[in-house]
Each structure stands twice: as structure tokens, then as C-alpha cells.
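Protocol step 4 of 5: obtain the predicted structure for the target chain.
Materials: sequence only (see below). No template structures provided, no constraints applied. The aim of this step is simply to have a reference model before the mutagenesis design in step 5. Sequence pasted as it appears in the construct record:
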Amino acid sequence: MPTITVAEHAGACYGVQRALDLVHQVAGDATGPVHTLGPLIHNPQVVAGLESAGVTVVEDVPREAGSTLVLRTHGVVPEVERVARERGLSFVDATCPYVKRVHHAAERLQRDGYQVIVVGESGHPEVEAILGHAPGAVAVADVASLEGITLSKRVGVVVQTTQAKARLDQVISALTARVPEVCVVNTICEATSERQQAARELAAGSDVMVVIGGRNSANTTRLAEICASACGRTHHIETPAELEGLWFEGAEAIGVTAGASTPMAQIDALVSAIRGLL
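Step 4 output (C-alpha cells):
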């Protein structure tokens, strides 16, 4: 019988668990409608569960009196909070504290006269929120993204919390070759680094790796990429229903990891489902 090993560090991180605890508390206490501005976390199953509990996703700040707005873990631009206050809404800030740290770092670098570069995925809600805290800042996904950007003599760098350290290092190396002064604030979340390292090590010793988490989750997608580089038989799924028995043929060691937005209950369900296929 093949062994199934779950990575030492996997699943819901502190910021995600904090956000889930907050929204459940709000849903239990609120007397009016409860909304999250965008999906609370990048896990479709969790978001669907919240909706069943009466917590709905909205894309804009609501106008309805008596409603409560929960700000997502990825953070928001300052304008959102201003509009919520103007409309008299109650709002609960579920922004991950580590994401808040990026906001503060970007603001500080800009105040100190640096041109702010955000290493991250343009269009991702976390990156868009960071840019909102440092107007004029630019997001770059990789070294190639630096092409065409006019750089000042003093550049300050922050990074999306779920980015890989290797990508940050590549961008920093390219910047230092072009700019006299580069000030770097490494804002990669420690939980992200731990999950990536644990996934890398487990994948290297596994015949098959299964990564569970939202396909819209940046950190889960990155885990899948890391695993695939060490284990060719890597599969990224959102639910155990996607598993296929053929994946495990001839495998002796099966590894499992999960993104930071994946609760432990989903990991347990995945392990049980894999056992049922062996």
C-alpha cells in the first residue's frame, strides 16, 4: 500500500484563519446583511459555504443601510474604507496583518522619496491594494516586466506576500544592475516560505504530488509550480472529486500539500479520498 504524506506546513495560515473567525463572528452578531468585498479568501468552496450562511460577496461598497462590510484578507485601497464610512456602513477589516505590513512599507518608502516597485501579479487583489497605498507605484511580475519602465535613482521594493523568494531575488538583481540605490523590504509571509519549502522537500521524495486549493489562489498555484519542478506527476485540484485513480498507478509515495486558503477539513477529505482510490 502506498504511503500518503501531508507536507509539514500546509493549509490555512494565520491570516486566513483569523479572517474566517472574524466573518463567522460578524455573521452571528449582525442584525443586518453581511457582505465581503470580493471573495474573503481564494477558496471557492469556503466562499460558497459562507454564502450558505448568509455572507454574500459584493464587488462594490454597498449602499444599503444597516449592512456590514467585511474587507477581504487581500486588503483594499484606502478609498474603499473612505466610501464605507461616508455611507455609514459598519465594516470589519479582515485584511491579513502581514498584508497590512506591505501597505505600511510601501507608504513609508514613498514618503522617503523612493520610487516604489511591487514584485507581484498585476491585477491580483493583494497587489492592487498595495498599489493603492502608494499611488504611482508599479507592479512587476518578473525581470521581463521591468523592461520599458523608467526607473529613478532611488527605488524601493516590496513584494506580494505569496511570491517565491527566487523571483524576488531575480528582480532585485536586475534592479541593482540599473539603479544606484535599491531599498528592499522583503514582505514575503513566513507561512508562505514555510509552505513552499515543505512542498519542495516532500515533492522531491514523492512519486505523485496532489496540491489542493483554489485555482484562483496565487499561493496555491505557486505551490503547484514548485511541486511540478520536483515531481513530474503533480496535480492541482480544488476538490477531491477531481481525483483520478490512474494518477496513482505504480506510486509508492504520495505527497499532499495545500494552499494557505485551504482549511484542514479539506486536506483531511482529500487524504481520505486518495485512500479510497488505492
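Step 4 remarks: The longest strand covers residues 154-159. The mean pLDDT is 93.
Proceed to step 5.
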